Amino acid sequence: MKEEKKVQNYVMSLVRMLISVIEEKDPFLRGHAERVARYAVSFSKKLGMKKWDIEKIYLAGLLHDLGMVYMPYEIIQKPGELTEEEMETVKQHPIIAEKIVSKVSVLAEISPIIRHHHEAFDGSGYPDGLKGAEIPIGARIMLLADTYDSMVAARPHRSAIKPLEALREIMNNKKRRFDPALISDFVDYISSIEGLSTKKKVSGDKDALREMIMAIVQRYQKGDIDLPHLPKIVHEIIEVIHDPKSNVDDLAAVIEQDGVISLKLISMSNSLWYGGIEKIYSVRRAIPRLGYRETQGIVTAIAYRDLYEANNIHYKLLMEKLWLHSLACAFAAKAISKKMAVGDAELLFMMGLLHDIGKVPLLKALSQMERQVTPFHIKDVLECVEEFHSRVAEEIFHRWRFSEKFIDAAKMYEDPQGDDASERMVSILRLADRLTQDIGYGLSENDTGEAHFIETDSMGLNIDNETLDAMGDEIKKVMRNAAHLF
Ligand SMILES: [Fe+2]
Ligand SMILES: [Fe+2]
Ligand SMILES: [Fe+2]
Question: Residue 64 Cα, ligand 2 centroid: separation in angstroms?
C-alpha cells in the first residue's frame, strides 16, 4: 500500500511539473487544465463511472493540452482567427501530447483520452475523425468540459461568454460535436454547480433526447448495433404452418426443440382460460387445444416476451407497458378481424403483436445509455420514440424477410395503390391500437382506461359503438386471464 502511495505521489508531481510547463508557455491555459479536470471528474462521478476510470479522466484532464507546449508563440497569442495552415499546426497538439504521455508507462493508459479529446461525435473532429462510440467515453466527456471552460474563459481571439449562454450552445449542439447521450446530464451538472436556473432547460432536454434517438436509429441502420433477431423457432413454425402437407406432429417437433417455450405452451393449455380441464403433458396435445394456427401467434408472443426487458427501473415499467399494449393489440386485432370476417385473424394477431416492435430496440438503447442525473420525461420519451419507431421496425422486418405488404400494414401506412383487403387490415390495426388505449393498455400516463369516442366510420370499418364496447370488454377479460401466461 505504501509503495502504491509513493508511485501515486511520484505520478502527481510529474503531472504537476508538466502542467507548469504548459502554463508557462501559455498564460491563457493557466488554470484551464485544473478546471477541465475538475469538471470532467465530478461529471464522471455523477454518471456513476468506475473509480479507476475517473482517475484516468482526472489525469487526462490535467494533461490534455500538454501538446500546446510545442505550438509557436505567434499562433498561441494571435488575437484574430487562425489561418488554415495555423489551424493544421494546432491540430497536432493532441498527437504531440499523446507522444509525450505514452513514454511514461504509468500514464500510457490515459493517452487515448488525450489523443481524442478533439474528436467530434459526428466524425468531423481531429486527429483521427473518429465517430460516436469509437471515441473513448473519457474523451467525449473531456470535449464537453474543455469546450465549456474554453467558452467561459476569455481567449486571445475572442472574449468570454456567460455560463448560461455557453450551456445553451452546448445544448444546441449545432455542429453535432457532442455525444447527445451526455448533453443533458452535463448541462444539469454545470447548472447545479453554477447555480443556474434550469427552467429553460426542458425544451433543450427534449432536443437532446431527439438527437439521441436519431443517433440510435442511424446506428441501427448502419448495423452498428444489433436489432432483435427473429427467433429460429418462429421462423420454422411459419414454414411448417405454410406448408400444406404438414400436420400437428411436424409443428410439435419444431416447438419441442425449445424446452422453455414447450413448457409454457403446455401450462398455457392447462390454464382455465384455454379450457384446461383434462391435464395435458405434451406439446403434441397442447397444440389442438390452443389451435393449430393460433399456436404460431402464441409461440411468437412467448418468444418475444423476453425482449421487453430493461435493466433500469425507469424503462422497466415502460417496457412492461409496451409489452401489455402489444399483446392487447394482438388480441384486439384478431377479435376485430373475426367479428367482421375481414382478413386473416391469425395474421392480424401477429401484426398487432409486432406493430410497435420498432419501439423496443429504441427504448432498450435508451435504457442502456440512461445515465441521466434527472431522467427524461416519459412523455418526451414516448413522443420521440413515436416519431422514429417505424423506421426501426422497417429495418427489423426487412431483416426478417417479411413481405412488403406485412411491413406496410404493420407500419399502419395506407398504401394508395394497395388493394381493398390490405387497406382494411390497416384500418383494423389502427382500430385495435385505439381500442387497447381506451381499455387502459395504452402507453402514456394519462390513458386511464376511460373510453373515448372512436370514429370507426372514418376508419372505413362498419362497427357500431356497442359492438366496440363489447369487444373492449372481451379484450380486457383475455388480458386479465391470459396475459400472465406468456
Ligand atoms: Fe485541446
Ligand atoms: Fe483544452
Ligand atoms: Fe401501438
Answer: 6
